[in-house]
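Final paragraph of the annual report: two paired records, presented back to back.
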Amino acid sequence: MILISPWAQTVNEDGSPNAKDYPYWPELLKKIKEHVVQIGLSGEQQLTKNFKKDLTIGEIENLVMECRTWISVDTFLPHFIYPIGKPGIVIWSVSDPNIFGYAQNINLLKDRKYLRKEQFSFWKGVVRNEDAFVSPEVVYRALYSV
């Protein structure tokens, strides 16, 4: 089983996607032939048949221990999993994996030119740039190198 955490918390008042939200999930999921479980919060877009919402920390930890690997954007999950020691894949866009990432993971950043200049400032109003993300093919290749 592959665990995914596809969305960062929405912060834009106009309802636009979070700058960290990977726009190519549908294309990526079409390529993956394994069972995929999505975790997230009520109100988030469901991408898989098996979407587990509003889980407790213990429930998330159990799923992490059961999965073969996991894929997430830069959000809560990679930080939560780090002390557990289970490597996975993190898809980056505007946050710097050299600051916020962990060496145990495969950190996928398309190009440093897309990184925010103020890495520690608030996210309010940061616009998602789809060009800042790696392609689904890059994530897929990383998935099967784990």
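The closing record of the year follows.
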Amino acid sequence: MRSWTSTRDEFAARLAYHVDWGPITPVLLFHNFEWLPTFHDPTDDYLLNADVGARSTLIGNVFAEFKGELRHDETPAPGRQKDDGRLLFGLGWNF
């Protein structure tokens, strides 16, 4: 039976950015990127997290958001894939 409690702790640097762009009034486009390289081997042991999406105001404080996410682990756990992606659609309320 596989143990899900085992972990590996590492020190890592962090390089990240967040960009918002509103080309027209009700629409906001966004992109986030994060690179987490370990100090001992930054080119062969790192994590990447990125997403890109759009948010649009529907009525009043209610909005809809659609985004794609990518998670990449250059040294995943045994039996795991390096890449994990997903598409998300959500409704929200700004307050």
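The chain has one domain: 15-70+83-93. This concludes the annual technical report; the extension proposal builds directly on these records.
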